[in-house]
Amino acid sequence: TVYPDQYLASKEVAQRIAELIKKKNEEGKKAILGLATGTTPIYVYKELVRMHKEDGLSFKNVVTFNLDEYYPMNPAAVQSYVTFMNENLFSKVDIDKNNIHIPDGSLPLDDIEEYCRGYEQKINEYGGIDLQILGIGRTGHIGFNEPGSAPNSGTRLVTLNDLTRRDAARDFGGKSNVPMKAITMGIGTIFKAREIILMAWSKHKASIIKKSVEEEVSADVPATFLQLCDNVEFFLDEDAASEL
Ligand code: GLP
Question: Which residue intervals define the domain Glucosamine/galactosamine-6-phosphate isomerase in the entry (predicted)?
């Protein structure tokens, strides 16, 4: 779906999330959300915060799983996705801290494999993700599933692509400060979500959106794997859709 701008598109995504939360609440159930970071979902979170403050939308029955985190990363660092989520959403709504899950970038290397298995298992224990929101990197990554990622991959430690590290350089005061690795949910983990929404805004995403939607499915552009899903919707602004 193409929207005139990212603000209108983000409002619609926030509305979908709010409807899910309310429906689950009426059923006496938890809403299990898969969340993304980066600049793309910022207005979705802003709108959810507004709905919490002005419309009384409660996050008490919401459980969240974030897609990814840099590795190594101190959760208290300004660049961590923990800080990002706290600043943009969690500290501004009534979510129970025990219901928040973000990959831990501060664990020793030897513990990562077991930790990732546990992350995956926790998602399953909650009955899976109801709604997963995604941005897209210019390499075609979703989460941090860089080119070469397998469609059945699970949560794991990955090596970041050079372009991804260049795109992140501004946040870190130079590319050399960007971590070499990240922990990410896998393509397989993302696919298990009952509903997937991918968002992309502006001209610099137009070419990767064209590849993702129109080119052959291939691990060279991991987002093309989404063509194999029935339950996925792309929310684009006119600029991101301009090469389609
Ligand atoms: C980051 C995140 C992704 C995000 C992507 C796009 O590396 N790990 O989850 O979708 O890059 O970032 P942005 O939304 O800032 O364009």
Answer: 9-227
